[in-house]
Amino acid sequence: MPTGKELQIFTQAERSRPGVTLLPKRYSNDECTFILSIKTPGITTLADNWEIWGAAAAVTEMCIKHGKNGQAGMLGDDNIMALTSGPSLPEQPPSALTMNTTLPASNPVKLFTEE
């Protein structure tokens, strides 16, 4: 996943629109699964990939490494998006991404790349 700071539009809706990222989105690797979602369907928010990647890195460091599920909330320009992690999350939504790049052991944060 790019870690750029360009704002993107996210929504949790029935169908996609040009230039809008449809949620929920599922990200996973061998250790855990993350689902990015908005609590209220039909609502739109702005966020950048850097904010989402940072939330995933924090949850990995504070929760996943200690065998716990975690959540980073209040994401997006109006704080309505959440990133949830855990081994028993629902089946994969239609648009999925995979975490498959690992930095050196001194900095074990995983980056997201599109399948």
Task: List the topology elements.
Blueprint (H helix, E strand, L loop, with lengths): L7 E4 L8 E3 L2 E4 L4 E6 L5 E4 L1 H14 L7 E6 L5 E5 L10 E7 L7 E5 L1
Parallel strand pairs: 1-2, 3-8
Antiparallel strand pairs: 1-5, 3-4, 4-7, 6-7, 8-9
In this structure, how is the largest beta sheet organized? 6 strands, mixed
Number of strands: 9
Number of discrete helical segments: 1
Secondary structure: helix percent: 10-25%
Q: Quick recap of the structure?
A:
The chain is mostly beta strands. The chain has 1 helix and 9 strands.
Which descriptors would you attach to this protein?
single chain; 115 residues; mainly beta; six-stranded mixed beta sheet; three-stranded mixed beta sheet; 12% helix; 38% strand; disordered C terminus
Structural features, described:
The chain is mostly beta strands. The protein has one domain (8-87, 94-114). It has one helix spanning 49-62, and strands spanning 8-11, 20-22, 25-28, 33-38, 44-47, 70-75, 81-85, 96-102, 110-114. The chain has a 6-stranded mixed β-sheet, covered by helices on one side. Strands 2-1-5 form a 3-stranded mixed β-sheet. It starts with 7 loop residues before the first strand and ends with a strand.
